[in-house]
Structure formats: structure tokens, C-alpha cells
Write a structure and sequence with these properties.
Elements lengths: L7 H4 L41 E7 L10 H7 L2 H4 L2 E7 L6 H8 L5 E2 L2 H5 L4 E8 L5 E4 L13 E3 L8 H11 L9 E3 L6 H6 L5 E4 L1 H10 L4 E5 H4 L6 E6 H6 L1 H20 L1 H12 L3 H13 L11 H13 L11 H4 L2 H10 L12
Parallel strand pairs: 1-2, 6-7
Antiparallel strand pairs: 3-10, 4-10, 5-8, 5-9
Helix pairs in contact: 2-11, 8-13, 11-16, 12-13
Length: about 375
């Protein structure tokens, strides 16, 4: 599914997930201080909550990858409940897929949102950067030695086909060898088929998360890491959560509190490996050793945010990249403020005691 302007009217009409919010400001929790290293107990309910406010949160793969698990951690440990939030987690087949974008456009869910969809007419804003940095590598079959060898090969377009995240990453890798998407065969599958497809030889190149890299090399040592995508695209903004502008106007306090809970969750994840790994393993349906490997990678490389996750140069680079790739027309180039509701994120940040740094991570 092409996510550019000509496809968005069809995308926006196709979803049926449901979310609702209570009245503005209901059950709002007071300010909290940043988590401290070594804090080990699950977060307790801070104030009585008689009517939890309902919200639907999307995750970008089904089942989720480790990087996508903060909402599961927040729900399991009562971090949402502390702020009087009843979160329903919805799994999508790709953060740039038709159903994910429709969920945001229709006000049905807070989920992954990028600048291309906003430019194409989606009336939404990014309100939290869950994982600013790319956690992936581009992994290829043993026969692939360089990007030039991808010519004519079967590459992943999992999670939405043309325009999907894997398609975009394949495009970037091909560009390093002066190739275009027309020089390869892109195979559209569900997100859960990425690793099995590579192991079975059904695809020969795919962007994989760290836990799947661990499993791929364990299962088939001949598979090769062609490039670390964060090194190839160091300013690419990987995963930002967005919501319809109408929902922000309807209940700004709810979404501020959701973001505050998620900031608190990411900080907890960084500092409490033993407590979060079982939750992540259950959500991802991946072996414990693979999940532990992913946690180590994600925390060492500051993939998860510890504050709002937003960074103007990173967002502006991502906008310019979309212009350069003709996903956005130059005459319709967006500004940072067109994409990010920075003030809402900052209000949430104030609720958790302001900005902090954990192990050198500070986004």
C-alpha cells in the first residue's frame, strides 16, 4: 500500500478499532520525580481513580518487537493505572500500514505517525518519540556481499508493501549502490514473516530488530549483517507516536498523561532489566536470551527515549529525506511545528519531574 497522498483517502476509511476518553482532565495525577537508578518496585497507584480514562495505543508489529514493548510494560506494572488510564493495546501490521494510519486519522488510536502521512493530509501530530534511533540492521543471505549484489534479489516489504518501513529501508540500502527500488523485487508479507522468510530463503534482504538478528545468527550462522541502519541513517526518526489533532483538542489532559506514563515507563525500562524482561518476552513471544540481547542493545545504544524523544534536527532531517526521496513534494515541505506537538510533550515531561539523563541517554 502506497502511503503517499493518492492512497490516503482509502486508508482513512478502513479501520475499526475503538478508543474513547473520559472528560478533560479526569483523574490527572500530580507531578512525579524522575526514576532513580536501581529503583526496583513496580509503580504503585498514586491517587484514587474512580473512572479510568480509556485510550487505544497502537504498536507497529504483530507480535511486537522488543523496542515496541513500553506500552505493555506500562500496563503490566500499573504505570498507566497510576495516572487513571485504561489502555487497550492494538497490534498493527506495520507502523506505516493502512490500518495504523487510519487508526490515527480517525481518532481511534494513538499510534505510529510520520511526516509523509501528515503532509498527505492526515490531521495529526506526533506527541511522543518512543524510539528516536533505528534499532535495526539490514540482514542478507550468505550470497550477498555488497549492496550491489541486491540487484534482482527478493527484499522485504513487510508491514504494508510499497511505502512500508522495510520497503523504505531497502530503498536506502539500494541507494548506496546507485540502485533503485525498480532494481529489486519487494515482497509484501506480515511483520511476523520477516525472520522466517529470511531463514527459509523466501527473501534475501530485510531490516531486522536485534532480537531477530540474535535468532537469525543462531539458527543460520551464514546470514550476514550488510549494514547497521543507524550508521547508514543516523538522523532518521524511527518511531514517534501520534494522535489526531481533534483528539488533542477534545482531551489534551488525557494525552498529556499518557505521554507522561510512557516517559516514566521508558525510564523504568532502562533501570530495571530483570523486572521488564519477563513482560517483554511474553509480549514478543521471543526466547528469553533473545529478549535479553535486545534489551542490552537498545539500552546501550540509547534507542528508547528517556524524555520526550523529540529533537528538532532529527525531525527536520527526516522531513528533508522524505522530500529528497519524493515522498513529499518540495513545494509542500513541512516545518517541525507541522509535525510535532512539542508543547504537549513538554507538559508531560513536567509531570515526571522534567528532563533527565540515564546512562548518557538524553533524548
Amino acid at each position: 500500500m502506497d502511503i503517499r497522498g493518492r492512497a490516503l483517502p482509502a486508508i482513512f476509511a478502513c479501520l475499526g478499532v475503538v478508543a474513547s476518553a473520559c472528560g478533560p482532565g479526569a483523574g490527572t495525577a500530580g507531578p512525579a520525580t524522575p526514576s532513580t537508578p536501581g529503583a526496583g518496585a513496580p509503580v504503585a497507584q498514586a491517587t484514587p481513580c474512580t473512572t479510568p480514562r480509556k485510550v487505544s495505543l497502537g504498536v507497529s508489529t504483530a507480535p511486537p518487537n522488543v523496542v515496541h514493548t513500553p506500552p505493555y510494560v506500562a500496563k503490566e506494572l500499573g504505570i498507566f493505572a497510576k495516572r487513571c488510564i485504561d489502555a487497550d493495546i492494538v497490534e498493527f501490521e506495520g507502523g506505516l500500514s493502512a490500518t495504523n494510519l487510519a487508526a490515527v486519522a480517525q481518532g481511534r488510536a494513538m499510534a505510529s505517525l510520520n511526516e509523509v502521512a501528515i503532509q498527505a493530509g492526515l490531521k495529526g501530530k506526533q506527541i511522543w518519540g518512543m524510539a528516536p534511533r533505528l534499532p535495526h540492521v539490514y540482514m542478507v543471505a550468505e550470497s550477498i556481499k555488497t549492496a550491489a549484489d541486491l540487484k534482482g534479489k527478493r527484499l522485504s516489504a513487510a508491514g504494508g508493501g510499497v511505502g512500508s518501513f522495510n520497503w523504505r529501508m531497502g530503498r536506502e540500502v539500494l541507494k548506496t549502490a546507485n540502485l533503485t527500488v525498480a532494481d529489486a523485487q519487494f515482497i509484501s508479507t506480515g511483520t511476523s514473516a520477516r525472520l522466517p522468510g529470511l531463514l527459509a530463503g523466501q527473501i534475501e534482504g530485510v531490516a531486522l530488530h536485534p532480537e531477530d538478528v540474535f535468532l537469525a545468527q543462531k539458527e543460520k550462522p551464514g546470514l550476514r549483517i550488510l549494514v547497521n541502519l543507524d550508521q547508514l541513517l543516523p538522523l532518521y526518526f524511527f518511531n514517534a507516536y501520534g494522535v489526531a489533532e481533534s483528539k488533542i483538542a477534545e482531551d489534551r489532559a488525557l494525552y498529556r498523561d499518557v505521554v507522561a506514563a510512557l516517559i516514566e515507563t521508558n525510564r523504568f525500562i532502562y533501570q530495571n532489566k530483570a523486572k521488564v524482561l519477563p513482560i517483554m518476552a511474553k509480549a514478543t513471544q521471543k526466547p528469553d536470551d533473545a529478549v535479553a540481547y535486545a534489551w542490552d542493545f537498545l539500552t546501550k545504544n540509547c534507542v528508547w527515549s528517556v524524555n520526550t524523544g523529540f529533537n528538532r534536527p532529527r525531525t527536520e532531517w527526516s522531513i528533508q529525506s522524505s522530500v529528497d526521496n519524493k515522498d513529499i513534494e518540495p513545494s509542500q515541505r513541512l516545518k517541525y511545528e507541522d509535525v510535532v506537538a512539542e508543547s504537549l510533550g513538554n507538559e508531560a515531561l513536567a509531570l515526571v519531574g522534567g528532563a533527565t539523563t540515564i546512562n548518557g541517554c538524553k533524548d
